[in-house]
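Batch job 17 of 40 flagged for manual review because the log was empty.
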Amino acid sequence: MAEDRPLSGPTAPLKPDTGRAGIVLAGGESARFPTIDKALAPLSGTPLLAHAVETLVPIVDELFVSCRYRQVEEFESVLSDFDVRFIPDRISGRGPVFGLRDTLSETAAAYAALLPCDMPYVPTAFVETLFTRARNHTGALAQVDGQAQPFPAAIHVRAGQDACTTAIRSGDPSLPRFIDELEPIVISEPEVFAHVPDRAFTNINTPDDLLDQQKRPL
C-alpha cells in the first residue's frame, strides 16, 4: 500500500529547471545494524545522517531526505536545525532507485547532488566539483577502484527521473543499471584523488566499520 508522504520545513519554490537540490538517501533497512538505524549511528557525536546533510547544506538551494515512513519522526528530531523535506518511499523495501525517483519528482531544481547517509567524509568542495562537471550533461560521478561509483553524484533531475523509470521498467532497478541508463560523465580516478583524500569514499556498512572510524579523527 502506498504511504502518505509528510513534508518537513518550508522551502522556497524554485522555478522549473533552476537551482540545486541535495538528496540524502537514508531508507535502507540497516540489517547489519541490529540495535540502531544506521543513519542515526553517531560518529564523533554526530549521527551519520547529519554528517551527510552538513556536507550538502552549503551548496544546495533545497534539501531532501529519502527514507521510510517510520524513520521520519526520528530523522526530524536529529535534523531539527536544518530545513529539510522528508520523502518517504511510496512503497517500502524496493531499493534506492525507487526512493530516488520519488524524491526527484519533488524538486523543480535543474540538478541534484546525491549522497547516501553512510559516507561521512565526502568533502563539500568535491560535490561542488561534481555540480560543475555535470553542467550540460546528464550527470557527473567519480571513478574509484576502476568502477564508476553511484555516490556521491550530481545529476540532471529530469534525466535522473527518466533513468530511474527505465531501470525500474527493465526489471533491474539497481544502482548500476541506473548509472547505465543515465550515461553521466565519469571523472577519472587520478583526477578524483587530486581533489579528495582516500577516505572520502569510505562507507560505514557495519558496526565494526563505525568503531574503526571512531578511532580516527574527522
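Reviewer: the log was empty due to a logging misconfiguration, but the result itself is present. The CA atoms of residues 42 and 48 lie 6 Å apart. Unflagging and moving on to job 18.
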